[in-house]
Write a structure and sequence with these properties.
With about 110 residues, the chain is mostly beta strands. It has a single domain (about 5-105), classed as 3-layer Sandwich (Rieske Iron-sulfur Protein), CATH 2.102.10. Helices cover about 0% and strands about 50% of the residues. The protein is built from no helices and 11 strands. It has strands at about 5-15, 20-25, 30-35, 40-45, 60, 65, 75, 80, 90-95, 95-100, 100-105. The strands form 3 sheets. It has a 4-stranded antiparallel beta sheet with strand order 2-3-4-9, with no helix packed on it. Strands 5-6-7-8 form a 4-stranded antiparallel beta sheet, with no helix packed on it.
Length: about 110
């Protein structure tokens, strides 16, 4: 049985999320943080798996976002823990640009 095509939800115009910034968007029943970096767009669950802090408000350096609440870092491409503090990975979401809109996969 074929799996259904993923459903992508438009969240913002690409022009409204400047390079080097992040913002949280509601995607279905989840709050998803979208990051715009030199390497591209990435999307993680906005809630830090360590402490629940908003990753969209974290410190963004290259391909790692660090939660401001307790300093847990996560790789944008994999959600895996980065840095000294090890914890459960953050959930990653597929993200794309379609007709100038940032779209995030709804799960």
């Amino acid at each position: 049985m074929d799996s259904p095509e993923p459903k992508f939800v438009p969240v913002a115009r690409l022009a409204d999320l400047p390079l080097g910034s992040a913002r949280a968007f509601e995607v279905g029943r989840k709050l998803v943080a979208v990051f715009h970096t030199a390497e591209g767009l990435f999307a993680l669950d906005d809630h830090c798996p360590h402490s629940g802090g908003p990753l969209s408000e974290g410190d963004l350096r290259s391909d790692v976002v660090t939660c401001r609440w307790h300093g847990a870092g996560f790789r944008l491409s994999t959600g895996r823990s980065a840095g000294a503090m090890r914890c459960k990975p953050a959930t990653c979401f597929s993200v794309r640009v379609h007709d100038g809109w940032i779209e995030v996969e709804e799960r």
